[in-house]
Amino acid sequence: MVLKEIHARSILVKSQVFDYVVNPYIGCQHSCVYCYARFMRRFTRHKEPWGEFVDAKINAPALLRHEIDRKPPGRVWVSGVCDPYQPLESKYELTRKCLEILVEYGRPITVQTKSPLVLRDLDLLRRGDKIEVCLSVSTADERIRNLFEPGAPSIERRIEALEELHLAGIRTYAMIAPMLPGADELADQLSEKVDYVLVDRMNYHYGDWVYRKYHVEDAMGYDFFYSKGNELASAFAERGIECRVLF
Questions:
Q1: Looking at the predicted structure, is the pLDDT value of residue 107 above 90?
Q2: 102: three-class secondary structure by DSSP
Q3: For the chain, what is the domain count?
Q4: How many angstroms separate the first and last alpha carbons of the chain?
C-alpha cells in the first residue's frame, strides 16, 4: 500500500448526488473490482492499481472549517469517491474530524461506507437530527463478496453495524449496489435493521472479468437485474421496508 499525505485545495464540493460531498481520502483500501471511483487514477500520479494507493488529505478538517461558512447549507455526502471509514481512518481520523464540524454546524449528513468502523463515531452521529448512515451490502454470499470486494469487511459485520446504528436511533439504509449474485437473502438479514433500501445494477464494466473468470456471466445481464430487483423489492415490501429500485 502506497500512502501519501497531501494538502487538498477544496473539501466541501458540489455534488450531483447530494448538495455537497466531502472526500477525506483519494483511493480506497477496500479494492472493490467494480468501483466507479477507479477513474480517479487519471487525476493522480499513481501508477499503482486501484486499491493499492491512498492519499490522505491531512488538511481536510481545517479546510472544511474554512469553507463551511462560505457556502449555503445543504446535505453533505461522506463520501463519494472513497470509503470514509477505510482502515487508514483509524489512524488519521479525518472523517471523524470533518463530522465534528458538520455536526457543530447542524448540517444534514449522509454517511456511506462498507465498514463497521463507523460505529466508532456513534457519539457524533447521535448528536445530529438530520443524519443517516448507509452501509453498502451487495450480496449475502461471503464467497461472492470476497471475489468482488476483496479488501472490504465481511457482510456479517456490516449488517451488525446497521443493526447497532438502527437500535441507537440513527436513520439507516442499505445500498444493494451493485446487486451481485447471492443478494436474494438480504431481505431477511436486513429486516428491522434499516429504514429503507436502495437497489441498483452493475453500471460499470471494471469488474466484468470477475464474472467471466468465475462463470457467473448470467448475473451481468438485464434479465438478472430486472428479475432479482423485483424479487428483492417484493421481499422488502412484505417486511414493511421501503425499497427503491434505481434501474
A1: yes
A2: helix
A3: 2
A4: 35
How many whole angstroms separate alpha carbon 71 and alpha carbon 68? Answer: 6
Burial of 227 (0-12, 13-18, 19+ CB in 10 A): exposed
Q: Tell me how far the alpha carbon of residue 104 is from its chain's centroid.
A: 23
Q: Which of 137, 219, 227, 222 is nearest to 181 (CA)?
A: 219
Whole-model pTM: value is 0.95
What is the tens place of the pLDDT at every residue in 170-182? 999 999 999 999 9
Average pLDDT, the chain: 95
Are the beta carbons of 232 and 199 closer than 8 angstroms? yes
What DSSP state is assigned to residue 120?
G
CA dist 138 and 144 (Å) reads 9
Cell triple for 98: 470533518
Using CA atoms, how far apart are residues 132 and 194, in angstroms rounded to an integer?
Answer: 10
What's the grid cell of residue 132? 443517516
Q: What is the pLDDT of residue 39?
A: 73
CA distance 192 to 116: 18
pLDDT, tens digit (0-9, with 9 covering 90-100), for 42-100: 667 778 888 899 999 999 999 999 999 999 999 999 999 999 999 999 999 999 999 99
Residues 158 and 119 both lie in one domain: no
Residue whose grid cell is 453533505: 76
| CB-side neighbour CA atoms (13 Å) of 9 | 0
Domain that holds residue 210: 137-247
Q: Are residues 95 and 190 in the same domain?
A: no
